[in-house]
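REQUEST ID: PR-0412
SUBMITTED BY: lab tech R.K.
PRIORITY: routine
TASK: structure prediction, single protein chain
INPUT:
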Amino acid sequence: MDFSSKLLENAVNEVSQLPGIGKRTALRLVLHMLKRPEEQTLTLAQSLTELRSQIKFCSNCHNISDVAICEICANPNRDASIVCVVEDIRDVMAIENTSQFRGHYHVLGGKISPMDGVGPGELNISSLVEKVKGGKISELIFALSSTMEGDTTNFYIFKQIEEDEVTISTIARGISVGDELEYADEVTLGRSILNRIPFESSLKSS
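STATUS: complete
OUTPUT:
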C-alpha cells in the first residue's frame, strides 16, 4: 500500500495493530478521523492516553477499575463469599448484563495455554488460591469458556483447592463448546449461571 504521507502511513500502521483491523480498515478509520473536527480527534487521543496512564486493576479481583477497589467489590450488597472465576473484563461485563449474579468476580487475565506460552504463573491464580485458603469463600463458580484451554485452567485450579472446604461449581452447558461468554445472549448466560452444576459432575460427563 503506497502512501502519499509518512504521517498517514505511521497512523495506519499503528491502528492496523488492533485486533481485527487490517490495513484497509485502518486507512478508512484514519481518513475518517481526519475529516472529523480536530477537537474530536484530540479528545479521542486524550481519552486513550488517560486510559493507558491512569487505569487500575482492582486489588481484590483484578477487574479493570478507576480506583484501587472496583465498584463491584466495594458494593456492600454483593455476596463476597461467592466468587465467579472469569478470563477477562469482557466476561465480567457479559455476566453483569444478565443481572443474575450478585457475588464477586476473580479475573484470571487469560487461560492456561502451553502452545501460546501461557502457564499458571502468568495468570492471577495464586491470589485466587490464597482467597480460598483464607476461608472467606463458600462457593467458587468456574465461568471460563468451554474450550480445551478453559477446561485445563478449571482443572488446574480445582486440583489446587480440592481439599479445601469450598463448593466448586461450573456454569451449565447452555453455552456451546468453544463459545466465548461475551458472545452469548444474556438469557442463555443468565440461565447458565443460575443452573450451575457441581464441577466434579462436569468432569464425569466430559
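NOTES: The chain has two domains: 6-54, 75-205.
REVIEWED BY: pending
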